[in-house]
Amino acid sequence: MCGATEGGLSLDGVDVAKEAVIQGQVLRAGDEPVPNAYVRLLDRTGEFTAEVPTSATGHFRFFAGDGEWTLRTLAPKAEPVDTRVVAATGSVAEVQVLVGA
Known about the structure:
It is globular and about 35 Å long. The chain has about 100 residues and is an all-beta fold. About 0% of the residues lie in helices and about 50% in strands.
């Protein structure tokens, strides 16, 4: 039900039934985690809502409202990558973002 991938972020302490969670991992070349990238959460109109840095393993997490969002990923030595995602209360939207080599 939680949709978390093995080796991904733990959902311990998160009441998924009451939250709309967007989380995932930033990768380079398909499997190399990208630490110290920044992932921005933009609303449906493109307005900035929040930003988090990726962890040492390239992971990130947002708690968002229901609806359509854009994740703008800014990673060293890569062009920005926009990824559309839909958040819904009671579910975890898992996202894998691939940035340039």
